[in-house]
Each structure stands twice: as C-alpha cells, then as structure tokens.
Amino acid sequence: MQPFELITVNSVLDAVKAQAASPTAQQGAQVRFIAGGTNLVDYMKLSVETPRQLVDINGLPLDMIESESGGGLKIGALARNTDVANHEAVKAQYPVLSQAILAGASTQLRNMATTAGNLLQKTRCVYYRDTAFGCNKRQPGTGCSAIGGHNRMLAILGTSDQCIASNPSDQNVALAALEATVHVTGLKGDRAIPIAEFYTLPGNTPERETVLEPGDLVTHITIPPLPAGTKSLYLKLRDRASFEFALASAAIVVKKSGDRIEFVRVALGGVGAKPWRSIEAERVLHGKAAVPANFRAAAEAALRGARPQSQNGFKVELAKRCLVHALTQATA
Amino acid sequence: MPTQNEDCSGPMTSLEKLSRRAFLTGAGAAGVVTASAAVAVPLASAASAQQEAPIPEAAIPGTVPVTLRVNGETYKLQIDPRATLLDTLRETLHLTGTKKGCDHGQCGACTVHVNGRRANSCLLFAAMQQKAEITTIEGLGTPEAMHPVQAAFVEHDGYQCGYCTSGQIMSAVAMLHEPWGPSDSDVREALSGNICRCGAYPNIVAAVQAVRRRA
C-alpha cells in the first residue's frame, strides 16, 4: 500500500478544505475522506486507490437519523448501514431501504460502512480491481478489458463503449426509488442534489461517477415522505443466498387506489452503470391495473435499452422477471 | 511487550510444552533468516511500561504514536499509519487468536468487536481506532473459563481446521445482542460474513442455536 498521511478533522469546513487540495474528487483523488473504510481500504490494498492523504471524518457530528418536521427522514453521512437498516422509522416508513441495506454485505461490513460511503461505493468489476489490466475507469485511456472479457456480473443499462461497470450498491437502488436528495457542502456552499442527478453515466469519462467536485463532502441525505398507504419492497437475485452482489434487483415504491396503481417508483440494481431508476416502467404502470400483463409490459419498457455483453445476456430476462415478481409482491 | 505464556501451573511433558505456535515460531527463527522491516513495534503496554525501554520515535520514520484499548488493556504503540487493526493485533501485540484470511473483508476470519459491535479488523486502520474499546477472542474467555459460545463450539464440534473459528465465535457472540429471528436460517444469514472452507456450517449453526436457546 502506498504511504499516506492520516489527518483527523473536527469540523466540516476543515474536511472540505483538506479535500479541496486534491485536483479531483473522482478516481485518482489525492485526498480521500475516510469513514467506515470498507471500500476505500480494500481498494488501497489493491493499489486501485492511492491517496497521499486520508481525512478521518468520523469525529464529525453527521451520524443522525431524524424524522423531519414536514415528514420524511434525514440520514447523516456517517450513520452506519446497520443503524439505518434497524431504525424504527426506516423500517416503518421505508421498508425498501431497510431491506436493501440488509440484503448487502455482511453484518461486520454493515456495522462499519456509512450511508455516504455506500452512496459512493465503487464498482466490483474485476478489471477495475486489478491493476494488471486496462480499465478506463481506473486509468483513463487504457481501454475496457471487460468488453469481451469476464463481464457476467456487469451492467447492461447505461453503459458505453468505454465502460460497462455496474454499480454494486443495494442501498442506492432503494434511495433512487425513494427519490432521495443528497446534501453536499463544498467550497461553493451547500447544495441539495436529487439522487437522479447525483450519478453520472460513464460515456467517455468513466473515471467520473458523480457530480462531486474537489472539497465536496456529503453531509446527509433526505428522503421525502410517501403518500399514506404506500408500500415498498426490495427484491434481490444473486448467485448465493447471502453476502453476494446482485445479478439483478428491484426496488418498488407503490400505492394502489382500488385495483389501479396510483403512485409508483421503480429502480433496478445489478444491471445499471448507476442505480437505475426506470421512469419508463413507471409510465407504463401509472393509472393501470395491478395485473401481471401490465407488470410484464413495465419490465419490457425498463429493459428496452439493454445492451447485453458476451456473458451477461441472461440479465435482460432475469431483470424483467425480478421486476415482475417484485411488483407482484408489492401490490399483493 | 505482552506475551502469551502457556499454562505452567503444573509439570508439563515436553509434548505439552510444545504448542503449535511455539513450534512454528521456533522453526521459523531457526530455519529462515527473515527480512522483516520493523514497521511496527510496541513501545510499552500499561502493565509493563516500567520494564520496556522506549524506542525513540525517530528510529522508525513514517510511524505515528497510537494508543489502543484491547481487552481492557491500554497499549501505547508506534506504528505505520498503513497498519490495519488486524496486523497490529497479530504482529505488534502478538494477539494471534485473530486470524488473517482474505485480508479484504470477505471471509470474516479477522472479526473482532469494536465498541461491542463486530467488525472486520483487516479493513480498519489501527490509527483510527484510538477511541475504541476493542475485544478479541483472547478477551472473551480462557481455556479454563470459556465464554458460553466457545464452550458450545467445543461441545458441537463447530470446526475442523479451526482457522475461521475465532472469527465465527466473535460473530456469534455479537449476534446474541443483534435483532435476529430465532430460526436456523437467521443464524446462517447472521454469520454469512464468516466463511468456513472446511464446511463445518451445520455444527456451527448447532453451537450457536444451543447458546441462543439457553439464553
């Protein structure tokens, strides 16, 4: 592991100033915030991340989980995954978020990992993880070894000719369906970024994954209140029953009025270059009867733009069935 | 420097004196000239501060002073910031009950408790754990007075080679205080972060369930 300097900060401003010394907040950042470390330390051991300075932000007062006055929930950047998943308000109001978090990683990792760390979780693409191979995300211009390589786990939606990495997070799929807002503070002050605008697609710059700029620190997320009577759930399909990344997953937030779908939000995991909100599926479902034919039509719409690779063509049908099954359960 | 003494309360045969660790350590020292860089050296533990000659900080460039609380003891160390809690426990404090498996948070062999919650010590920098109360398998019980989960692993034969066992036990003990349901499948899910390559899972589940049923 490359040597680094470890500093501790006691204020958000000091944290922002420290990271702003790095020319980027994206891949190759010379200064990294560290909280749980579950992702960053792993990638530092692999020399995928080589920061020269780590900024320990665990002392910042950002671990709150609070109900907001107008409804909704505020979750601090440092709130541990375990604490969010087991929080009574989360379980009662946003079961999809609790289920998604508990479907990811192991208890040990969830005890360590934070909300913002999970938000910024890096891909598990084997070529990104291995510095012996070319990878445009890790080292721009070196090519994508996954195209035509081992790509069974990788994305089929939102990819480009430069990168087909999948976003591995479960939490972020739930947050996409819940239309969470990411609150960031930086050199230019505070910003509230809808999660739909937080992640960027790889395009020709796969080394950029979010809109974060040097100095930007995620302070918390907010989740808006849901209409009364809304149900939500997370369904994850994977190679093992536990402690495995998704081949395909679906987060559903839905409210019926009689037999008709009055309100619905759909996001997919394991198949997208970013947590994949499917407006297309929502459009098909809105105002329609909650019946299998409509669920299948929504699934067809969600995967219409899929670009399967040499080994992950199965994900197209798997994601469709995952979505149909999740919609069936959520509207039962 | 803390040492792991064998139980010397009674006369021991030479075979009894020869623990696996003592044998391996001795064989390594005799047979191999190791080229280990001294990146981590314990300065002193609270208990033996008087006996230890302090090592000048300048002697080891790049190291930082770190105070750790492990199993109720305070240790003042001078370590590389890159040192994980796992490596510090094993190589510096010689608490070798915590095992290194994958070193990437995937196998659970390195599981310890940090402020009462289980964590993968391979993914924690020791220098970031200075306010934490750390518990390792050595702090759980002794051969004479085992923790109920340790006793249950013995009773139910919850291992074959034993390498994953301390991690399995640390996870199982933590699980007792976590919100899980009563079924075997809850145990399997709760312990999914601890891999056993021997496949002793049925006995591990039996051991954990025996403790949970008694609790």
Task: Explain the layout of strands and helices.
The complex is a heterodimer of chains A (332) and B (215).
Chain A: E1 5-8, H1 12-19, E2 31-34, H2 40-45, E3 53-56, E4 65-67, E5 73-76, H3 81-85, H4 88-93, H5 95-102, H6 107-112, H7 115-119, H8 126-129, H9 171-177, E6 181-186, E7 189-194, H10 195-198, E8 217-223, E9 231-237, E10 248-257, E11 260-269, E12 276-277, H11 279-285, H12 292-302, H13 314-330
Parallel strand pairs in A: 1-3, 2-3
Antiparallel strand pairs in A: 4-5, 5-8, 6-7, 6-8, 9-10, 10-11, 11-12
Chain B: H1 14-17, H2 20-31, E1 40-45, E2 64-70, E3 73-79, H3 85-92, E4 111-114, E5 117-120, E6 133-135, H4 148-156, H5 165-175, H6 184-190, H7 201-214
Parallel strand pairs in B: 2-6
Antiparallel strand pairs in B: 1-3, 2-3, 4-5, 4-6
Helix pairs in contact in B: 4-7
Q: What is the string of helix and strand elements of chain B?
A: HHEEEHEEEHHHH
Q: Which ranges of chain B are low-confidence, i.e. pLDDT below 50, for 5 or more consecutive residues? A: 1-8, 31-39, 44-51
Rg of chain B (C-alpha, Å): 18 Å
Highest-level CATH class of the largest domain in chain B: Alpha Beta
Number of strands of chain B: 6
Termini separation of chain B (Å)? 38 Å
What's the story with the biggest beta sheet of chain B?
6 strands, mixed
**Beta-strand percent range of chain B:** 5-15%
Shape of chain A: globular
Largest sheet of chain A: 5 strands, antiparallel
What structural keywords apply?
heterodimer, A: Uridine Diphospho-n-acetylenolpyruvylglucosamine Reductase, domain 2, Enolase-like, domain 1, 12 strands, B: alpha+beta, Ubiquitin-like (UB roll), DNA polymerase, domain 1, 2 domains, 7 helices, globular, disordered N terminus
